[in-house]
Write a structure and sequence with these properties.
about 400 residues, alpha/beta, 5-stranded mixed beta sheet, 20 strands, about 30% helix
């Protein structure tokens, strides 16, 4: 009896949090005018138009199904909620796939090609096994065990990509049996003792994981860089019995601090307002109003993290922040390196400097000179990639 030809489904796994990149999950960021997951969907939709794919299933974080389905713009797409693990998410998606075979693809790999999909499908059908794309390692590899480091033979190690091609029912069974802890479907497939073949992967088919990956993706889609500069300003009275917090650092032993609804960290407030001004957003008084008891005693650094997340969700990254603190008392010059170090850390500098600070005496002039208050000014520069008249 002649077997029927395989029927292929295309499953896009986009249920992750994207926490390593921060902000909006990477698969939902806008890249060249489209959400990242749409790049994979549009390629799969093209294959469907050619009769190569029967249906397309997208797995998203639970609760986002209706929102994401609306972005398909009327095209046929099955959207299902993800599980607590990658294996659980893929199992949920497989239940909605109508095909006998499935291509499982990471929603954060936007540059998938039709040729790669067809080569995987052909290999899986011909060999009657799973098929995955592999790339050799161009870098030298080291193996570290405890304190011991030794060279590894890079000729026997390969980078694994998606999509990955399998018989649907066999993959579902493997995930149910060995899914916990699997880094991809191939690792689970192999752990279940099933055979697999490889095809040559594609360098352009990289996964967006880090900020560098994101910038590379933006560059590949023909982006220009938009830069903006904003100004920030804050002033707070000095008051007895208040903690003195500057740039996220508590200055101990003074007996007085800055008066405010939050912790009154005027340097961090200035940084936030400079960043928000550059991005064209409302100031912190609007975002975190003193009239709201929720913000009483609020940690300003925590508020800064919220601002950074909001800017990142709109594609902005911090290039540079420079502030000047005007204060007659107490003497703070010796603490400036500590302030700079801490604020660089809170801005996510990761090995490079993003923040600079100077402290100036008020020279006995005005309210600051009389030791009644502190005043801070700052400027911030931010950037993002743009494309086709819109944000990357």
């Amino acid at each position: 009896m002649k077997q029927s030809a395989p029927r292929w489904s295309f499953l896009i796994a986009a249920g992750g949090s994207g926490s390593r990149l921060g902000g909006v999950p990477k698969q939902f960021r806008r890249l060249g005018g489209r959400a990242v997951w749409r790049w994979s969907f549009d390629l799969a939709d093209s294959l469907r138009d050619k009769g190569k794919i029967a249906d397309i299933v997208l797995v998203v974080p639970s609760g986002m199904e209706e929102e994401i389905a609306a972005e398909a713009e009327g095209k046929e797409l099955i959207v299902v909620p993800g599980g607590l693990t990658r294996a659980g998410s893929v199992i949920n998606g497989l239940k909605k796939c109508s095909g006998s075979h499935v291509l499982v693809h990471d929603g954060a790999r936007p540059f998938i090609s039709e040729d790669l999909c067809l080569r995987l499908m052909e290999a899986a059908e011909r060999e009657k096994v799973g098929a995955i794309p592999l790339l050799p390692s161009a870098d030298s590899l080291k193996r570290i065990t405890g304190a011991k480091m030794e060279c590894a033979d890079r000729s026997i190690y390969f980078r694994t990509q998606t999509p990955q091609a399998f018989r649907k029912d066999e993959l579902a069974a493997a995930l149910a049996e060995k899914g916990e802890g699997g880094t991809d479907e191939a690792s689970v497939w192999l752990a279940a003792g099933r055979p697999i073949v490889s095809v040559e992967g594609e360098e352009k088919n990289f996964k967006i994981t880090t900020q560098f990956d994101w910038e590379m993706a933006c560059a590949l889609t023909g982006k220009d860089i938009e830069k903006r500069t904003g100004h920030g300003y804050d002033i707070h009275q000095l008051a007895e019995g208040r903690p003195l917090i500057i740039a996220g650092v508590e200055v101990a032993g003074e007996g007085f601090g800055l008066l405010g609804h939050s912790d009154a960290d005027l340097v961090t407030h200035t940084v936030m307002d400079a960043l928000l001004g550059a991005a064209g957003e409302p100031d912190i008084g609007t975002l975190f109003p003193a009239s709201d008891e929720k913000w009483r005693g609020a940690n300003s650094v925590a508020l800064l993290h919220s601002v950074l997340e909001m800017l990142a969700s709109k594609g902005w990254r911090v290039e540079w922040v420079d502030v000047t603190l005007n204060a007659q008392r107490p003497r703070l010059g010796h603490l400036v390196p500590l302030f700079i170090e801490n604020m660089n850390r809170e801005l996510g500098a990761k090995g490079k400097k993003l923040f600079n600070m100077k402290v100036k005496s008020a020279e006995q002039c005005g309210s600051a000179g009389r030791g009644e208050c502190m005043i801070c000014h700052g400027v911030a520069t931010i950037s993002r990639f743009t494309a086709q008249g819109g944000r990357c």
